[in-house]
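Dear colleagues,

I hope this message finds you well. In preparation for our joint manuscript, I am sending the histidine kinase (Desulfonatronum thiosulfatophilum) sequence together with its predicted structure, so that both groups work from identical material. I would be grateful if you could confirm receipt.
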Amino acid sequence: MSTKEKPTDAEKLRERAEKLAKKKAKKKVTDEFAEMTENERLRLLHELSVHKIELELQNEDLRRAHEKLDAEHARFQDLYDFAPVGYVTIDKNNLIHEVNLTAATLLGIRRIDLIGQSLSNLILPEDQDLFFHYRKRALGAEEVQAEEMRLLKQDGSWFWGHFETSSIQDTDNGQVCRIVFSDITRRKLEEENTTRTSALLETAGRVARFGGWSADLVENRVHLTPQAAEIRGKPDELHPTLKEAGAYYAPESRKKMGDAFRKCVREGVPYDVEVEMFTAQGERIWVRNLGAPVRDASGAIVRVEGSIQDITRSKRAEEEARQAQALLGRAGRMALFGGWRMDLADKRIVLIGETAAIHEMPPDYSPSFEEAFNLITPEWRDTMTEVFDKCVHEGIPFDEEIEIVTIKGNRIWVRIIGEAIRDGSGAIVGVEGAFQDITESKQFEEEILRVNNVLEKAGRMARFGGWSINLHENRVYWTPEVAAIHEMPADFSPSLEEGLSFYAPEWRDKITEVFGKCAHEGVPYDEEMQIVTSQGRLIWVRAMGEPIRDSSGVIVRVEGAFQDISERKRAEEKILRTNILLEQTSRLAKFGAWNVNLAEQKVYLAQNTSLIHGFPQGYTPTVEECFNAYAPESREKVIEVFRKCEKEGVPFDEEMELIVGNGERRWVRGVGEAVRDASGAIVRVIGAMQDISDRKRTELEILRIKTMLERAASMALFGGWSVNVAERRLYVSGQATEIYGLGPGDSLTPEDAISRYIPEWQQTIVDAFDKCVQKGEPFDVEVEIINKRGNRIWIRKTGEAIRNESGEVVRVEGAIQDITDRVQDKEALVRNNQKLQKALDEKDKFFSIIAHDLKSPLAGFMALTRMLTDEFNTLPLKDLRRMAFELAQATETMFNLLKNLLEWSLMQRGLLTYNPVICLLADPIEHTIELFQTTAGNKNVYMQSELDQNLLVYADKQMLDTILRNFVSNAIKFSMSGGTIFISAVRDKDMAVVTVQDNGVGMDEEHLSNLFILTRKKSLRGTEGELGTGLGLLLCKDFVEKHGGRIWVESQPGKGSTFSFALPIADGVKPAK
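The corresponding structure tokens are as follows:
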């Protein structure tokens, strides 16, 4: 069974084209074709065939282009995935949309797990703020934004990453950020090492009296490091002109220094010279000055840079060594030499010259052979017997160094030389020779041997050795140290050509030139060049050579020293880089120097210092101008410390505020010290200044945040804890010290800490801690503990595991918080909810009572008004008056009830304004009596009063009036016709007591006990049926207590009631009107 092959893209395209052509052409094309001649049809067919071939060719080109595009896409994908840096694309929500394989590898997370994850989760917590601001800055920025921060790996470790982010508009995800990052952990570590090395080099420079310098040929000025300026004795003079710097050198050294510098500038020849110079104090010192040219991009020499070292001590040591050598030479010539001669016939020795003195014998003494022989120490007698016999019998001369004992018993070393004396027949008749006391030279030899051993060890340590070339043999002799530097065997002795071949190709012409001049013209050399060791290592060496001449002055050897200076070269390069970094750091750190000439009262400012002050560059202000630049609150302090330094030489280091020209305030740190002349007089004050505004702002912000955090921790009763799993020790901070009862620096074992928990909670905390240590599970528990005061308190404790690089749990850290108040508040909230529910129930009941009490007068009011409406024209005038009176009474009752209810409601909600003033208590009482006089008269009730007219109270007048109205109103309501109400106001110690007493119906114990309880109020009618709710008394109680007073009631049924309240007295103050 055959199957139809799937059409190709070209066939599909052809099919679509034919359909389109048919659709467009239809009948018109057919008609036009029918009208063509045969030739036109053939030509059309030919053109169509050609066009078909063209289309097929174009289709083939498109197919190949498509394949090429696919290949390019695959290659791009490989380049993207296997790039040496990580690529990540994030959207505006910080979610990862794309990530390459390198990024996933660096993070240790599968690429599929990274997609959709927030990039913030991969940033170290300490760098989260930095990343937030960086992403915010990068999103929408036109330029690439760079930053360095730390990323977390899946295993919990982290590494430093360098980020470069560009913001683009993506068709699918809107505004996105494409981030390129790389691992720069090694570079960061190297930067830290460089910082430490720079500090060590700076210290070494001070100790070794070593500094750097740079001569700018454009500015015609020399820039010195502080160490170099210190050698000159002028630490403040860091930028002299070339002419001023040249004047430092002693006249006899000036030409040598000038020639070397000019040759370096004109020909690019580096130099290393030792010259003399004068310090600022006039002291003459030796310095070693090294210089090398620095070229610009075009190859032109624009600077000369180098170093300077105070070598005065080494020069003095060299001079002392030279003098010692000369002294030793003179000692050699003045040494005790003598002669001797012995005649074999009489065996008697004749002593010549100093020989007798060496033996400590009399000058004319002539010992026998046996006497002289016996002076030789026993260990040397056999040697002397042998050589003497050979000389006497065989004529063999001898030259021996032996020990003898002088006549006085002193043991000394001597050199004895002897040779045979023959007569005319050649027979040996005697022996003669020389005698020298070499005790000192022997001691010197021993010392030299010891020194040589030390030097040999020093040479090995310093990689320093010597060499010698015999020009006749053309052979180089190396010490073992030089052979070791070349990484050759210790006994290796190369030819001159072999020795020169070790030099690097770029230095071979140089060594050939200087060695040739030394060997042929006697010019010594001292050069620093590079060699290639036998192991192929390129190292720096210092090679020194000088000619050795024979007695006729002909150069027969060249000798010298050889040292591996690779370490020093690397150090010099680091020093150079460090100096550049220091200069850049000075600019970045807003740091500059200043110098005050006290005679001129002028302040010379460095460039950065002028910028800090806001002075124009090159401007030299007076001391007073500088004082006036400081803020008023800092100016007095500045003047005080400067004058103290100027007069007493007291250095200062202060932080003060400047006001620059535009009114901006800047915090600066000013350091200064006095400089004295040779006589000890203070002539200058020098120092440095740094703009520390950013630091001050940061310090203030840190202090603010720290204070806030401390307050927050204190308010929240919050602290931290940490357990070192290996040490089994608990360390706490903040409020945790209070909870555990520990002092600063104290610690506990976890077991001790657990024992402080309430027993029923101990297992809970043990289980949580063990799971955290063993499985890394974090925990968050609320438990009870006994604090250091012995109180039971509730705490919330959280903890999480901290792992090392290998994933092991090494610490458990977390937070602890005293939540006793929260737990108690929670319990109190439950209680308050219960109370609130009870109050709501009471309020509902109270409103039911109020509604019931309002219902009666309102019902009577409605009945009277309906009767008036229906029967007004038929009712007699007497009835109308009675009904109007009853309406007035009902209205007044409802009004008073509603007024009391409103005031009580305002009081309960805290909305009633309390405005106390000092007033006479008698005034509102008399006003109330006058107010109720008519009401009491209508009921035939009499009111009497007895008031202290001088009582002053501190009270709210409106509240006081309400209390008095309720008391008097109640007394009238419950009094019989013909009854009496007695009102008094008296002083009782520091209280004013007001009493309203009636002889009315009175109350029993049940009514008295429920009188001030809201839900137990039961309204009572007055003696003439007056209505009431008792709400007025509740309001009176609240008002009295608001004033800090108290209220009470005494009553008996049928005998009346006495209502009293007391308010604090306000004595000695004039009452308010």
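For the figure legend, we might mention the following. Confidence is low (pLDDT under 50) at residues 328-334. Residues 820-871 form the longest helix (52 residues).

With kind regards,
E.M.
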